[in-house]
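Reference record
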Amino acid sequence: MGLDSVELLMDIEDYFEITISDSEAEKIYTVQQMVDTVANLLNIKDETADLRDVILERVNYALIKLEITSDPINPSDFISSYLSPENKESWDAFVSELQIKVPKPETIKENRTKFLNKLIKAVHWIPLYDWRLITVKQFIDAICVMRSMQ
């Protein structure tokens, strides 16, 4: 486990006031495995499928109402096909129509050099995301996580 992973693990333990044993930590390779481990330690049952369905329905409704798309979107679609956090007007209209808090990612900008993107990440401690690679399902999962932390 690298230093970044150890620091992330410690931050998660602090935030949720839990302790993840070394043997459990060694088995964590993906975000889903981390979520499952934390949920297990907090005795949280998987009831998020209903929430995901509701949020997907609301996202579909908002995108269709705003005429961003005329067809329902699929969880496997890339969210960048419909939205960009760089387009402030469209993003704000979507968030307003959705009427729930939506995490706005700090994205990797194509017009920046790789060095500048890394420098921004290092200075601000903000993870940079390649928005083009985020699926609708991942986006909805991020909304679900944000809602559960409120």
